[in-house]
Amino acid sequence: METLYKRLSNLLSVKSIVTVILTVVFACLSVRGTVSSDQFLTVFTVVIAFYFGTQAERAKNINSDGNSV
Fold first, then answer.
1. Are 29 and 35 in contact (CB under 8 A)?
2. Residue 63 φ then ψ, to 5°
3. pLDDT digit string (tens) for 6-33?
C-alpha cells in the first residue's frame, strides 16, 4: 500500500503534470492542423526523453536502502 502512495505522489509531481499537459496540448494542436506532424514528433520526443531520462537518473542515484547516494 505504501508503494501505491509513493507512485501516486510521484505522478503528481510538477514534472509529470507538465509532461502530461504539454503532450495533450501538442496532440490537440496537431489534430487541429496548427502543428505539423513532424513538429509534434520532435517536441513530443524531446519531452518524453527528458521525462524518462530524469526518472532513470533518479533511480540510479538511489541505493538499495532507498536513501539518496
1. yes
2. -85, 180
3. 777 776 777 778 878 887 888 888 889 8
What is the model's pLDDT at position 59?
73
68 DSSP β-pair partners: 62
Specify the higher pLDDT residue, 45 or 12: 45
The answer, as to whether pTM is greater than 0.70, is no
**Torsion angle of the four alpha carbons 52, 57, 59, 64, in this order, in degrees rounded to the nearest 10:** 160
Q: Which three cell numbers stand for residue 54?
A: 530524469
How many angstroms separate the CA atoms of 68 and 2, rounded?
A: 18
What is the C-alpha separation between 63 and 67, in angstroms, rounded? 6
Query: Look-up: residue for cell 502543428?
Result: 35
Residues 6+ apart with CB under 8 A from 62: 68, 69
